[in-house]
UniProtKB/TrEMBL annotation:
Native source species: Paenibacillus radicis
The name this protein goes by in its record: Helicase XPB/Ssl2 N-terminal domain-containing protein
Region (Disordered): 88-122
Length: 396
């Protein structure tokens, strides 16, 4: 439902709170007057933008987690979890032992004046209540004793458009670089190369389930995109089943082949399945979409707001844009994951993998350094447009 529809279902108490936030001047006892005044006030871009500009970084992260969801409803528990994920550990330093000691005894009156008032911690429920009072969340019943919250459809669009203008104003767009890398269709080619190699070689596995180094090196040498095997002792976890053994792109490729059941283990040896033999004959038309969905599923655990981040790259990199200007816009939205800081996640887990998937081009500009731009196929995939039977149309 849209904002106006949800206002119609809201009680006069919630309407009064929303009107108070936006300082609407109307008859507070008339539901119709409240609705009309709220709609009139919120239709003004300056009012809407002022509310978003007044949000702190945690509230922006929470808002971002809702904007690109295809789902209509969220439980209170889900919203609380999203607010908690928006806190990246920016907490106050712990109280020291000296600070915990009682102050010297003073006259009662002077002690009251010198004691600082405790600062009330903002809880997830406080932030959810604030969004409700602004009319950005509405709740109702669904099933016995269960609340579900909704974000109005038209407000989601306004959130995205408003934030896009705000972010785009901070970016530096350029002309086409003198050289760039475009990996469209290369992943599909290397999937076929992997299956061909397994079919014609006795690929044996070590006790941990990985290929022996000799096979891994031969396979990497045959790929269109060169990668190095992870160094010994390098931490590798969280981004898929094969991430511990193989480099980023190869790991996703193997996870995809496993998920599609193109090969299986047979007494510590990789053996092609019937599905794998069929894949050798030709790739499905929607393989880029399948790879993209698998990447989202695997990387969403370490990067909970992966969908929002990838959609922002999609929306902000319609033209060539410098990475140096994009970095300060997106990094506040990225939560570090163990040894991966926000910058490494942006460059390697997001941009690097989107390039490997053929969603993004990356280039080297003579004046502005690294620049990126979405491919036509990438924009189609992220808009939910099927590429099946239309591959050539999007290879531009």
């Amino acid at each position: 439902m849209n904002f106006s529809d949800m206002l119609g279902y809201a009680d006069i108490g919630q309407l009064s709170r929303i009107a108070s936030v936006y300082r609407c001047e109307c008859n507070g006892h008339s539901k119709n007057d409240l609705i009309q005044s709220i709609l009139s006030t919120l239709s003004r871009n300056d009012v809407f933008e002022a509310q978003i500009n007044g949000m702190n970084v945690e509230e922006l992260r929470f808002l971002n987690s809702l904007m690109f969801e295809t789902r209509d409803s969220f439980s209170l528990e889900e919203l609380i979890a999203r607010v908690q994920q928006s806190k990246f550990g920016e907490t106050e330093p712990p109280v020291t032992q000296a600070e915990q000691q009682e102050p010297p005894v003073k006259p009662k009156r002077s002690r009251k004046k010198s004691e600082p008032q405790p600062v009330k911690e903002v809880t997830p429920r406080d932030i959810i209540a604030r969004f409700k009072h602004q009319g950005w969340l509405f709740n109702g019943f669904s099933g016995p004793n269960r609340y579900l919250f909704q974000v109005p459809h038209d407000l989601r669009t306004r959130f995205r458009d408003t934030l896009k203008r705000k972010y785009a104003a901070q970016l530096q767009y350029t002309d086409e670089p003198h050289m760039y890398r475009d990996e469209q269709q290369l992943m599909s080619g290397d999937i076929r190369q992997t299956l061909h190699y397994i079919h014609h070689n006795d690929v044996q596995l070590a006790a941990d389930g990985s290929m022996y180094k000799r096979f891994s090196m031969q396979l990497l040498d045959s790929f269109a995109v060169r990668e190095e095997l992870p160094a010994k002792g390098e931490w590798r976890f969280g981004y898929g089943r094969h991430f511990h053994h193989y480099p980023n792109r190869m790991s996703l490729l193997f996870d995809y082949c496993r998920s599609m059941r193109y090969f299986e283990d047979n007494q510590q040896t990789l053996v092609l399945t019937t599905a794998g033999q069929e894949r050798m004959a030709g790739a499905p038309g929607n393989e880029t979409e399948l790879l993209y969905k698998l990447w989202l599923r695997l990387y969403k655990l370490p990067i909970p707001n992966l969908i929002a981040l990838s959609q922002w790259i999609n929306g902000l990199a319609e033209q060539w844009v410098t990475l140096s200007s994009l970095r300060p816009v997106l990094m506040p939205l990225i939560k570090p994951y163990y040894y991966d800081d926000a910058n490494k996640i942006l460059e390697h887990r997001l941009i690097g993998m989107m390039v490997h998937l053929g969603l993004l081009r990356i280039g080297d500009h003579q004046e502005h350094g690294t620049v990126i731009r979405m491919t036509k196929a990438g924009r189609a995939v992220m808009a939910g447009i099927s590429l099946e039977n239309n591959d050539k149309m999007f290879l531009l």
